[in-house]
Amino acid sequence: MTRLKPWLPVIGIAVFAVLLLVVAPAVLSMHWLNNLGKYCCWAIAAVGIGLAWGRGGMLVLGQGVFFGLGAYAMAMHLTLESTAPGSLPVFMILYDPLASLPAFWEPFRSDAFTLAAIVLLPVIVAGVLGYALFKRRIKGAYFAILSQALAVALAVLISSTIRETGGDTGLSDFKYFFGFVLNDDANKVMVFMIAASLLILCLLAVWQLNRSRFGELLVATRDAEERVRFLGYDPANIKLVAYVVAALMASIAGALFVPIVGIITPAEIGASASILMIAGVALGGRASLFGPALGAMAIGWGQSSLGSSWPDGWVYILGLVFILVTLFLPMGLSSLFGKAKGLLWRSRGTPPDALDEPAPVLEPVGDGVTK
Amino acid sequence: MTGPGGALVVTDLRVEFDGFVAVGGVSFDAHPGEVRFLIGPNGAGKTTCIDAITGLSKGTGSVTLGDQQLLGRSTQKIVRLGVGRTFQTASVFEGLSVLQNLDIAAGLHRSSLSLLRARRGVDPAIESALEEIGLSEERETPAGILSHGQKQWLEIGMMLVQEPRALLLDEPVAGMSQDERTATGELLQRIAQRRIVLVVEHDMDFMRRYASRVTVLHQGKVLSEGAVAQVQADPRVQEVYLGTAATTTAGSVPPDAMTETTTDAARHGEGV
Fold first, then answer.
1. Name one Pfam family in it (chain B) (predicted).
2. Cα–Cα distance list, B25 to A173, B47, B177, B219, B220 (Å)
3. Do the chains contact at A214 and B116, CB–CB below 8 Å?
4. How many domains does chain A have?
5. Among candidate residues A282, A306, A322, the one where a domain is terminated
6. pLDDT for B229-260, tens place per residue?
7. All domains in chain B, ordered by first residue
8. Per residue in A201-233, pLDDT tens?
9. Which structural domain range is residue A78 located in?
């Protein structure tokens, strides 16, 4: 058992992988498989938030920014792919029949550029932003407000540039995904598989980061930032790595969200969307490995089942769940496991092997003495 | 300026906070092989001196370790140049075990890429530090539930695994029992055989037992410097510690009696 213990998370990830990649496609209808793909996207972003917030103590309230970077990069590519060569995306002609394609759209015709942009854009933006913020020792509420404001700013920017980005209506009507017809069930399963596999990969990456020395340093930075300087490390660099990794994951999540859901609008990346992303993490347990992913998926499921059948009630239920979790389980639902384990040990009193032994041996001896 | 034999040399150090001069031109030096003490009443600028040396406060003047200038560098850079320090209140990482605390502190000279790997086995340097600070039995204990004295030793251990050339300790024995003080004093003397050890202290008894040389600070300036007996006999030091009311008797107070009163004075001073 003790030799197995460090590998338990990997076994957990493996079980999760089988459920997502084998069981889910076999059991679920196309509609629900697509929904599950959507939850996987939120879960990918949540895994990153778990690293940055749960382990690194950075309250990243504006992950919508990076989600949006990945999503719009992908959406621009898919829009161009669905547009006949030589003509413009439909929405652009709608607003201005004589418009020409904006220069920043042009490179997104290329598959390679799009994929590179999905990876590099968030790394560069988060790298520059994080460097500036962490070197100046901006943290806590100031950091949270700033990141939230950025998400709002990006959403407003997209809303107000309707001719270039589609504005509030967003980008939609994608027909092809890197050459594959999106309206085909087999291809939809493929896109789901990509999202699920990337979620598994992100979980593995964060598992390794958490158990590494970097992970220990990150927790140390979260708990006593100034003290880390006296270990000879600049806490800004440690936080920067976690922040960039979280941003990258959010961007990948956004990029996959687009072909799965079929539309991206500023509402999916703004303040409330960003808060919903972090809400799942808080619910599941920010510092745990599976908590953020499962929490995000639960919130996603709640939104598409309860949220669509009873939209008014869903918001209240969500609010109530949060009040209860923050009051009674500040480390999220995953901390229930630890508590249950503690209770189990206490009720048993002694380890099982010590319990089993005395009973059969002592009983007959005691009987002999009293008689 | 090059210090002789890799010494820590502080020359004309000044630290100001918004016009208030906390340290006004302090000079002293510390060499490997001695346990150097920095004493003085509260507000004398002892901790501020250490803060300036380790880059926590901005100071002017010069602080050199060997031929390296320390002033103006960042804290983490100064640590990498070989200066370790402890704090008045032990600041170990409470959620991590004793071993993890030492391991994280020993990471200084590892490459950045190796940070991505998990820890396997225990470094010999960490093993010997565990031995040195007497926490071998507690290696898996979370640092948060160690006793106060053990936390201070763990902090010293965390400095040792960094293999610093100079160790600065801020009131290491505050709140310790007599036995723990003795163990700490002997530990410091062992460490000082090959390294510079600079101790800021209130406790006169501890200072008297383990100091090789002492610098007395008062109101941000050096009041007196020398061996323990020398400093204790200095009438200016007695005046500072005993106050003006005692000036008439100051000359007649034998050094030993004085240490008792200075201890009291220092304790009263703590409340100020």
1. ABC_tran
2. 73, 15, 35, 11, 8
3. yes
4. 2
5. A282
6. 888 888 888 888 766 544 444 444 444 444 44
7. 8-271 (3.40.50.300)
8. 999 999 999 988 899 899 889 988 888 888 889
9. 5-282
